[in-house]
Each structure stands twice: as structure tokens, then as C-alpha cells.
């Protein structure tokens, strides 16, 4: 029994590997997934939600450079390293952008940064608030690669942290939609008759409600917040999965191997899970990839409308919302950068969906 | 005589894989040339090449030429090809059900061909179409002209297809298995029609089929193809009376004969090894065996079984019923094989499904060992499944493509909790695989890696894994090539002798059923037409329908 056999799954995988865009998108998505999990490691601003504001330097161009003075806070926050790694540093330090500074006796004299050619106010602070009385480590050059948003927060950090929401809403929504959709679809397709009629009725009713309105209604009922959005999007998406599964099951259950399974005395659960579902996974996988993309778009749409993730949480949709009126004010990058992020992630999912469809198609 | 179509040294490759190896033949004017071969022999591919209908992306004519009236068709571009295709060379396909456009009326589809290739006016086209319908002997041509394909029978659809093909008075007509999907009686009519049309129009016909007996009834000359080569060519008489190639011999002899009953059917391998056994089951042996069989109490008793379907039901109209099985009763004894024949739609498969409890009978009772199995609960039915099993028709769709065959055979054992452990089960599976003539290496392979005959063996292995008592063979060999069919029939007989199975053998093929069965049950329109010993029915049929059925079987020469 040393013969190594090629299952249909392996054949599909081989085909998928040959598709450049599919593989490219796959690695792109893996990369984004990795970045979103370890967002706080990569982000220059690793405070919770990348929420370190510097109002003085709001909405600066990408690559903006400034000297930054950090005032250590007297409040000591206890936080374990795991928490810090995945949820950001709980930060009470204040950061002040300055244009110049000098040390005189026991005090640090600095001039606050002011944009548009204005003179900043001159302020002093006692040196003893810094450890070892030396403020050297607390005054640093800081570069904002993607510039700053309208509250002076680092845009790059917010984009990285915001990737989380987009990515996880995809996962959660698709997971919920698969759980409900496959269950409902297989029950209605396999048993048919009255069960089918009832489930189809529910599907049609759910489908006739505009998605966005339904999500708004669900978020209103469950309260605002990003978990509610996850669930709401998942609850609207199961209909498509259910319909696809139902249709596939109806045609697959006529196959002789299903009749064979019945004749061999298998119970319904076994027939559905072992003999039908594995054979109809191809369209389900493809529709899941499309749903992934759709979920990201719906979430950004909801955030844009202000019912998605709530501030200070970073989300790409919310970032566009915050900055879309800057587009005509000559600072379009504030909205364009998160926009491009959404586009490339959605596109990657679409391409991967296409590649999977081609790979799983047994006919050619 | 100058040939009208000449094929010279033709080779065709699919993805660098040569499937036709350097074949040459010629088609004369006014003759019917038969091409015989099994699936994969390249008989259809070579004829598609004549029409330039090969799938362009994956196939390529690597060598040779096809010469039609001094024109090389392999070099022709698609524009001038369209003038020849359908006009000078026409084709009839196997599946009349899917080769007609379901959203166009039959008349329109024939008219379309005429409008495309002739310069007749609309009125003339309609007249021409009606006369064509008359020519192919369609009943009530005016009605057929107006109806959609689903409203006429399979045989009538094939007649419409023939009308379409001969609409432009082609020189060459290619008929690719035109009767395979049809019942024997209809097949007989279509063959007669084609012959008559050929005599009338003097066109040349290439008739492709897998059935040697059938070709002997229609063709003048025969080509035998095997694995992309022409192995034998000659007049029908010569091929039949004195076949030279061992493959041709095998093809002629593997089909069960209607006159004698061989103990073991010869297969191609036997002919290649020259080890043909000609042992015959004599009448006396058969009688002795039957006396023993029918002394016991019946294993299965079918009493007045009916199965009704609702054909039309609306909100306001009364539902209309259609009886697929109508008042059928018979007894089945342990160890016997009951043959069930009839044309498509006669209710033979429905009856099989009712016995298997896959479709519940509407009324009547089915007694298995004296217990009425129509009244069992769901769990009891499931337990019963161990005893009554089925072998399916289509070896390609009866296996789950995502489960390796070893596991597929092991699964029913697991479900019915046979044997103590998985290790023991696995040993049993390997035993069974060997028993049906497969090696144990196949345990982890997937169904798509096997040929049709091998898959049918796997299907049989899965069926016998449960050690059933009664097996319903629903057209189990109909989808197989003749040589493979012989092997599977032999296997079924061996298994029966080894394990003492009882078979209900359902088929539309009278020759096969007669070879296999002890008792024969002829069904027509849901009712039993005749029930008796297979030999008696065949030798002296009582009913008109049975006579017609037996008469329609192509006998060969």
C-alpha cells in the first residue's frame, strides 16, 4: 500500500499553485493577516488603538519629521507583556512636538511646535521629572511615514492596527455565515418538502431586506460596537451560502453514490456530512472568498456611516470617514491610504476566489 | 469506384497524448460503412475530426489528411468548413434528448438548417421541412412541426435529428451511436429508416456503434477499431463469419448468445491467451438446479405492489396519477436470479427501488422472509439494508469521488458494526478487493483513477462487503463495454456460486438478462407482461409484446 494517491483535493491544490495571481493574493493575505495580529509590534505608535494624539501637528504629509518631547507620566500602569503585545501599551505619557529646546540649570526650556509659520509658546519643565535628571532619551526625532491624521496621530500605526478590524470581520462574518448557511442549506436541500418551503421563505424574507439596513437594524438592537457589526454582517450573509448549499445539495443528492449510501443503510447525518458536503465544498469556498471581500466592504461602509467600530478604535472605514473632507482640501492621502488598503485586500480575496474557482473546477 | 471520403494516415493527439494512430480508410459512394469499437477506441474522435469538431484547445491533428472531393479538410479554415458541415457532411448524435434545442420548436430547428444552407424562400422551407418529416416517417408531421422537443418521444426526437441531418441532401451522413440511448424496438425502427433513406438518396453513411450485432444489420463494410488503431476491415459477412483478429473474435463472442448458455463468458484476455472455455450449461443441469431452488420457501414475496406518482397537480385542478408499477406480484427463491426486462419507463427500476425501500410503494406488501418490509420503522429498515443490496448502473457516479475506495468499502462495515476492529475490517476489505479481481494496492486510490469496469468492480465489492442475501442489479452492466460486461457478468456468477446470493437482475438488454436469469419477468407499462422460465419465454413467447421485444434484438449474422 505504498502507492501515493492523488485525491481531488491535491489535484486542485496543484492547479492552484500554478495560478500566479492566486498564489500572490494568498501570500498577500497571509502577510496582512500576520501584520494585523502583530500590529502593535510593527506600529511606530504602539499605544492602545494607536491613539497618541499631537494636535499641533495634525494632518501632515507622509514622511513628516519633527522633534518630539515625551513627558513621562507619574501614573505607573501595570500591564503584562502579552496584553501589551496584542492590545497595545496603555499609555499615559504625553508627547509634545517641539521646535527647539535648551537645558538651563534644573529646568528644560522648550518651544512648542506650531505650524503655518506661527511662533510656539515657550515652556519650562523641571528636570527631576525625568529619570536620572537627563531628558536626552525623551527628546527624539520622529518621522511619520504616512503622515498624521486630523488629531495628529500616526497614520501608519492606525492603518496597521485598523487592518485587524477588516481582517477579523471577514473571518467572523464568514464563519457565522458558513455555520448558519451550511446548516440551513443542507437541511432544506436534503429533506425538501415542507422543511424546504419554510427555510426558503426565511431566506427570501432575509434577502429582501437591504443588507445595509438590516445591519443597521441589528446593530441598533444589539448596541453599537465592533462585535455587534461582526455578528450583524454574518447574520446577513448566511442567506447566500444557504442558497448555494441548497442548490448544490439538491443536484448532488440525485447522484448514485448518495443513493448508494442510502441503500447501504447510512443515516442522514452521515450522508450529509460525509458524502454530500465534501463534494459541494468548491462553490462554498468560492462564495466564502467573495463574502470575505463583501464583509470588509460592508464593515468599512458601516464605519463610514459611524455605526461600525467606535472611536478611538482604528478602522479603515472610519479613517476614510474622518478624512474624506480633506480630499478637496489638498490632503487626499489621509483618505486615499486607507482606501487603497481596503481595495487591495478586497481585490486579493476576489483574485483568490477566482483562482480557487478555476482550481476546483474538475471539468477542465 | 472513386471513394467520396478518404482518410489517410490520420493521427490525432489530445495534449500530446496520441489517441488515433495513423489510421486510413475510405468511404465509397452509396455505401454504409460501420465503425465498431469500445469506448476509448477512438471511433468518435476520428469522426469528429472529419467534421472539424474536435475541441481546438486540447486536441491536434498531428499527421495525415482527410480528403473529401479532392479537398483536404484538415487544412480548411472555419469559414469554408461551415459550407460543408451540415450541408455536404451531416451528423446524427447519440443523445436525441440533449442534441435538440429545448427552447425552439422542432419545425424551426429543421427550418434553420435549410435557411442557412439553401436559398429557398420561407414558404418553400416550410414545405420542405414537412416533406422531410414525412420522409423520416414522423406521425402527424404538422403537429411535430409545431411542438417543442420535450413533447415528443425519444425515438421521434431521433427522427427529427435525422430529418435535420438529411435536410440538405448531404453526400455523407455520420451517425454516432444514434440508437444507443433508445429502446430495442425503437432502435429497430430507426435502423430500418436509415437503411431506407440510404437506398432512396444514395448517400454514404458512416455508422458508429459499439454493438457488433447491430452493425451487421445495417452496414455493408465494417471497420473494427481498438485503442486508436484499425485492427480489422472488411465486408460484414467476412468479419462475422471468419474474424481474423482476436479482438474481433472477442467482441463477437463476449456478448451472451441467445441460443446457448455458456458457463463462463469468454473475455478479450481469454482470446489473447487462447484459453476459451466452451462449457455449456445443459438443459438437464438447469432443470435439476431449478427443482432444488423452488422447493424451498420463497425469500422474497412481492404482493400486488403499486407505485403511484402525481404527474400534474395544481391549486384548482384535480391531481393526476400515474401508476409506474401496477399490481405486480411475484415470488423470489433463495439462490435464484430473477431477470426483469422491459423498455425504458416500464417501471422496472421503480419496482427495484420499492423492494430496496428507497422509494416506498404506494400499496401492496413486500414480504422478506415472511416479514412485511413496507411497514418497518426507519431504524429497522436501516438494519434490513444489510440483507438487501443494490449494484448500480453508472460506475462513474455510484462512488463518492472524495473517498478512497478502500474506505468506501470499509464504511458500510463500520456503520453496520461488522467485525470487531478497523484492522480486521481492513483485512476483510483487502480480501474482498482481491475477490473481485483488484489488487490490494488499490486500497488508498481514488475512484477517478480507475476505468469504468474497475469502478463497477469496486461498486460490487462495496455491495458484497455487507454480505447481503439479496442483490438488486439495476442495469449493472448496461454502461459497460461488451468485453468488460462479460467480465462483470462472470464475476457476478462466480460470486453467486461462492456466497449464495440471490439476484434480481434488471436490464433492458434481453440477451444479457436471458443469460443470467432463471426466471424472467417481462414488464410493460407498469404491469407484468409475462413471467416464466427464461428459456421458455425466449423460445415460445406468449404475449405480442414479448414477441416484438425478442424480434427487435439485433441478432448478428
From TrEMBL, chain A:
The chain crosses the membrane at residues 20-43, 165-191, 198-220, 226-245, 276-298, 333-356. Keywords: Cell membrane, Membrane, Transmembrane, Transmembrane helix, Transport. It holds the Pfam family OppC_N. It is a multi-pass membrane protein. GO terms for biological process: transmembrane transport. InterPro entries: BP-dependent_transpt_permease, MetI-like, MetI-like_sf, OppC_N. GO terms for cellular component: plasma membrane. Gene3D superfamilies: MetI-like (1.10.3720.10). Residues 163-353 form the ABC transmembrane type-1 domain. It is found in: Cell membrane. Belongs to the binding-protein-dependent transport system permease family. This is Peptide transporter.
From TrEMBL, chain B:
It comes from the Bacteria. GO terms for biological process: peptide transport; transmembrane transport. Signal peptide: none annotated. The keyword rRNA processing does not apply. Keywords: ATP-binding, Nucleotide-binding, Transport. Residues 5-252, 305-550 form the ABC transporter domain. Pfam families: ABC_tran, oligo_HPY. One of its GO terms (molecular function) is ATP binding. Belongs to the ABC transporter superfamily. This is ABC transporter ATP-binding protein. It comes from Algibacter marinivivus.
Amino acid at each position: 500500500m505504498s502507492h501515493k494517491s492523488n485525491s481531488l483535493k491535491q489535484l486542485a491544490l496543484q492547479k492552484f499553485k500554478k495560478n500566479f495571481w492566486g498564489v500572490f493574493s494568498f501570500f498577500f493575505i497571509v502577510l496582512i493577516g500576520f501584520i494585523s495580529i502583530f500590529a502593535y509590534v510593527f506600529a511606530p505608535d504602539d499605544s492602545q488603538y494607536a491613539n497618541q494624539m499631537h494636535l499641533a501637528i495634525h494632518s501632515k504629509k507622509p514622511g513628516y519629521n519633527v522633534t518630539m518631547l515625551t513627558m513621562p507620566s507619574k501614573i505607573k500602569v501595570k500591564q503584562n507583556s502579552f496584553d501589551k503585545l496584542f492590545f497595545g501599551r496603555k499609555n499615559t505619557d504625553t508627547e509634545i512636538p517641539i521646535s527647539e529646546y535648551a537645558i538651563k540649570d534644573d529646568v528644560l526650556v522648550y518651544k512648542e511646535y506650531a505650524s503655518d509659520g506661527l511662533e510656539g509658546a515657550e515652556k519650562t519643565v523641571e528636570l527631576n521629572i525625568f529619570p536620572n535628571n537627563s531628558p536626552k532619551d525623551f527628546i527624539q526625532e520622529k518621522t511619520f511615514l504616512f503622515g498624521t491624521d486630523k488629531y495628529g496621530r500616526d497614520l501608519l500605526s492606525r492603518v496597521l492596527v485598523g487592518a485587524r478590524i477588516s481582517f477579523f470581520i471577514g473571518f467572523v462574518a464568514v464563519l457565522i455565515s458558513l455555520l448558519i448557511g451550511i446548516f440551513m442549506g443542507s437541511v432544506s436541500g436534503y429533506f425538501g418538502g415542507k422543511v424546504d418551503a419554510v427555510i426558503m421563505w426565511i431566506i427570501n424574507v432575509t434577502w429582501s431586506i437591504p443588507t445595509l439596513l438590516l445591519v443597521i437594524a441589528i446593530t441598533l438592537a444589539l448596541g453599537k460596537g465592533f462585535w455587534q457589526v461582526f455578528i450583524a454582517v454574518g447574520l446577513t450573509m448566511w442567506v447566500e451560502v444557504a442558497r448555494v448549499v441548497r442548490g448544490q445539495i439538491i443536484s448532488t443528492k440525485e447522484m448514485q453514490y448518495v443513493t448508494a449510501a442510502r441503500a447501504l443503510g447510512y443515516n442522514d447525518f452521515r450522508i450529509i456530512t460525509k458524502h454530500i458536503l465534501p463534494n459541494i465544498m468548491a462553490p462554498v469556498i468560492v462564495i466564502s472568498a467573495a463574502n470575505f471581500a463583501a464583509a470588509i466592504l460592508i464593515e468599512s461602509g458601516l464605519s463610514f456611516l459611524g455605526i461600525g467600530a467606535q472611536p478611538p478604535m482604528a478602522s479603515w472605514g472610519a479613517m476614510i470617514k474622518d478624512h474624506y473632507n480633506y480630499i478637496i482640501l489638498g490632503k487626499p492621502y489621509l483618505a486615499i491610504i486607507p482606501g487603497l488598503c481596503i481595495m487591495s485586500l478586497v481585490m486579493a480575496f476576489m483574485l483568490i476566489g477566482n483562482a480557487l474557482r478555476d482550481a476546483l473546477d474538475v471539468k477542465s | 469506384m472513386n471513394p467520396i471520403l478518404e482518410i489517410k494516415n490520420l493521427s490525432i493527439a489530445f495534449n500530446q497524448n496520441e489517441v488515433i494512430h495513423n489510421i486510413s480508410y475510405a468511404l465509397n459512394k452509396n455505401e454504409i460503412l460501420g465503425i465498431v469499437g469500445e469506448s476509448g477506441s477512438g471511433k468518435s474522435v476520428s469522426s469528429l475530426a472529419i467534421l472539424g469538431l474536435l475541441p481546438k484547445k486540447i486536441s491536434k491533428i498531428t499527421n495525415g489528411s482527410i480528403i473529401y472531393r479532392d479537398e483536404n479538410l484538415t487544412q480548411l479554415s472555419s469559414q469554408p468548413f461551415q459550407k460543408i458541415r451540415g450541408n455536404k457532411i451531416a451528423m446524427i448524435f447519440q443523445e436525441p434528448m440533449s442534441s435538440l434545442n429545448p427552447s425552439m420548436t422542432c419545425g424551426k430547428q429543421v427550418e434553420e438548417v435549410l435557411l442557412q444552407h439553401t436559398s429557398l424562400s420561407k414558404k418553400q422551407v416550410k414545405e420542405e421541412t414537412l416533406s422531410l418529416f414525412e420522409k423520416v416517417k414522423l406521425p402527424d408531421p404538422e403537429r411535430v412541426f409545431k411542438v417543442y422537443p420535450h413533447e415528443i418521444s425519444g425515438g421521434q426526437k431521433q427522427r427529427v435529428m435525422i430529418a435535420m441531418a438529411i435536410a440538405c441532401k448531404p453526400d455523407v451522413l455520420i451517425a454516432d451511436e444514434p440508437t444507443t440511448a433508445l429502446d430495442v424496438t425503437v432502435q429497430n425502427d430507426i435502423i430500418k429508416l436509415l437503411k431506407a433513406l440510404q437506398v432512396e438518396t444514395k448517400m454514404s453513411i458512416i455508422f458508429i456503434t459499439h454493438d457488433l450485432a447491430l452493425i451487421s444489420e445495417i452496414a455493408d463494410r465494417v471497420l473494427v477499431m481498438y485503442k486508436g488503431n484499425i485492427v480489422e476491415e472488411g465486408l460484414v459477412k467476412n468479419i462475422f463469419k471468419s474474424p481474423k483478429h482476436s479482438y474481433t473474435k472477442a467482441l463477437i463472442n463476449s456478448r451472451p448468445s441467445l441460443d446457448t448458455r455458456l458457463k463462463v463468458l469468454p473475455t478479450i484476455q481469454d482470446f489473447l491467451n487462447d484459453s476459451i472455455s466452451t462449457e455449456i450449461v445443459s438443459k438437464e443441469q438447469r432443470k435439476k438446479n431449478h427443482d432444488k431452488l423452488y422447493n424451498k420457501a420463497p425469500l422474497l414475496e412481492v404482493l400486488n405492489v403499486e407505485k403511484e406518482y402525481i404527474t400534474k397537480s395544481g391549486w384548482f385542478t384535480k391531481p393526476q396519477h400515474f401508476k409506474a408499477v401496477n399490481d405486480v406480484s411475484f415470488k423470489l427463491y433463495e439462490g435464484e436470479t430473477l431477470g426483469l426486462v422491459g423498455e425504458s419507463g416500464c417501471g422496472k427500476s421503480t419496482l427495484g427501488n420499492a423492494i430496496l425501500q428507497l422509494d416506498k410503494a404506494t400499496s401492496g406488501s413486500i414480504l422478506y422472509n415472511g416479514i412485511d418490509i413496507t411497514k418497518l420503522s426507519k431504524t429497522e429498515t436501516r438494519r434490513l439494508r444489510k440483507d438487501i443490496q443494490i449494484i448500480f448502473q453508472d460506475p462513474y457516479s455510484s462512488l463518492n469521488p472524495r473517498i478512497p475506495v478502500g474506505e468506501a468499502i470499509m464504511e458500510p462495515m463500520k456503520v453496520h458494526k461488522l467485525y470487531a476492529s478497523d484492522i480486521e475490517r481492513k483485512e476483510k476489505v483487502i480480501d474482498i478487493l482481491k475477490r473481485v479481481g483488484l489488487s490490494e494496492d488499490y486500497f488508498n486510490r481514488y475512484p477517478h483513477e480507475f476505468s469504468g469496469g474497475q469502478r463497477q468492480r469496486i461498486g460490487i465489492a462495496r455491495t458484497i462487503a455487507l454480505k447481503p442475501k439479496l442483490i438488486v442489479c439495476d442495469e449493472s452492466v448496461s454502461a459497460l463495454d461488451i468485453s468488460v460486461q462479460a467480465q462483470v457478468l462472470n464475476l457476478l456468477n462466480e460470486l453467486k456460486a461462492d456466497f449464495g446470493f440471490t439476484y434480481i437482475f434488471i436490464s433492458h438488454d434481453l440477451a444479457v438478462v436471458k443469460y443470467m436469469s432463471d426466471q424472467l419477468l417481462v414488464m410493460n407499462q407498469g404491469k407484468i407482461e409475462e413471467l416464466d422460465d427464461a428459456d421458455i419465454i425466449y423460445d415460445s413467447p406468449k404475449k405480442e409484446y414479448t414477441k416484438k421485444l425478442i424480434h427487435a434484438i439485433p441478432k448478428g449474422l
